[in-house]
Write a structure and sequence with these properties.
Layout (H helix, E strand, L loop, with lengths): L8 H6 L9 E2 L6 E2 L4 E10 L2 E8 L2 E8 L7 E2 L7 H4 L7 E3 L6 E5 L8 E5 L5 E6 L4 E5 L6 E8 L4 E7 L1
Parallel strand pairs: 3-6
Antiparallel strand pairs: 1-2, 3-4, 4-5, 7-8, 8-11, 9-10, 9-12, 12-13
């Protein structure tokens, strides 16, 4: 929160983590409510029966504690800011274009995704192409592949999946 523009929902969404007001799960019914009004994210830090959490409302953001068995959170976050300086200004997930394509796609990368492994899977889960991102604009040749929907998976240091349509 110390690096946010403001200590509220706008600051949370503008942060590196892009934290939305996703709502909170009711400990009684299990239903998610308060979407676009409130959210609570748990960290992995705990103290006995309690966990540390980040609560965000439209006009306020704060750290607090909550009972582990209370439920309430929609998603958990890792309470680790050790790499934020490395990530500032670099989008870790490559931009994939043109998509759809009939011949190749370009992985437009930044420093955050260089060295990342990628795997292109067909609709049966078979690996068709794999490699490592070694340059800022890396081309993946798809000419020999049949038309169809493919899944491009990025692994370590980033984890992301994107669909690629070959026509």
């Amino acid at each position: 929160m110390a690096t946010w523009d403001s200590q509220d929902a706008a600051g949370a969404m503008a942060s590196l983590l892009k934290l939305p007001l996703a709502g909170a799960r009711s400990r009684m019914s299990g239903m998610i409510g308060n979407v676009n009004a409130f959210v609570m994210y748990r960290t992995r830090e705990s103290n006995g029966a309690d966990t540390r959490n980040l609560g965000i409302a439209v006009d306020l953001a704060m750290m607090g504690t909550r009972a582990k068995g209370d439920g309430n959170c929609v998603r958990c976050i890792l309470d680790d800011t050790s790499r934020l300086d490395e990530m500032e200004g670099s989008e870790p997930v490559p931009f994939v274009y043109p998509n759809p394509t009939n011949h190749s796609v370009i992985l437009q990368s930044t420093i955050g995704s260089l060295g990342c492994s990628y795997f292109l899977y067909d609709s049966n889960g078979k690996t068709q192409v794999s490699g490592q991102i070694v340059q800022e604009n890396q081309t993946i040749d798809l000419k020999s592949l049949p038309s169809g929907l493919y899944h491009l998976h990025f692994a370590s240091p980033i984890w992301s999946n994107q669909r690629v349509v070959k026509y």
